[in-house]
Task: structure prediction
Amino acid sequence: METDKKKDIKSFTLSQLKDEMESMGEKPFRAKQLYEWMHNKLAVSYEEMTNIPKTLSDKCMERYSYTALEILQVQESRIDGTRKYLFGLADGNTVESVWMRYKHGNSVCISSQVGCRMGCRFCASTLDGLERSLLPSEMLDQVYAVIRHTGERVSNVVVMGSGEPMDNFDNLLQFITLLTDENGLHISQRNVTVSTCGIVPKMYQLADRELQITLAVSLHAATDEKRRKLMPVADSFSLSELMDACASYFEKTGRRLTFEYSLVKDVNDTDEDARQLAALIGGLNCHVNLIPVNPVREREYVQSERRAVDAFKNKLEKNGINVTIRREMGRDIDGACGQLRRRYMNDRGKKQQGGTYSA
Result:
């Protein structure tokens, strides 16, 4: 495909874009103009860039691909106004994002990959494996498209949708650079959260960057044996190795860690599980986010009962652990990561088999 050979203009930093303009014989100020249109005014095409000469936009179209995601579906919760977006990518793939309104500002949860290869047992994103990683621009434009659609500012961005961000490490770092750049949306690093299932070497690499983002580690079990049953990544990295990486992250960045713990009925929600968790993380500066697991049609796991969730929380608090129960947003729409995309792809497959679908 022709666009595969083109560089992706929306993934350049301002300095990289200046270099590109110079290589084309253009003045450096053109880079600033283009950058502002892409990352501040959120233009969806060169045609919107009114102060860019047609000769330059023609040259850019010839040399560069321009990422602008297409909204395929929007689901809006009647309970709290949460919106779930399904975006179409240029190659026909799809990704999901979620927009949530909080008192402290609007938050967008984005995907970092099409699908996922981590294989966590209670997750819908991983059911069909990994299709590919997203470009920095494709991660960014999930945020931009939501802002364009809602007409509202976004103050927090969470990389916790489909995919494992640490499995797309370089593109993730470029995305954070662009998202937090003062010439673009200029979202504070402290308002960016990145989730990981625990790819230890990448956690050390991230710590070395000394960013001020929040690292959210998907834990979901407090023993190696139980974690291996839930998360295949535990076959590669033990809890001891993971805790060492977490301690190093705090030491390098000074940022408190968040541990994500999805509560699954009769699997990891007992008093003994809570006691083991408190013993495991007790020495770390951390916060635990308890998540009543989202039921996934293809999995057998079900949500813990409310009294078990409350008992688990109380046990952790008695051991001095800072803990919250995640507020369930948009529960009346396709809540779990990957469900909306999976349903869309299944429906599309049925239409193609019937001969009635046209892309």
Residues 352-359 have pLDDT under 50 and may be disordered. The longest helix spans residues 136-150.
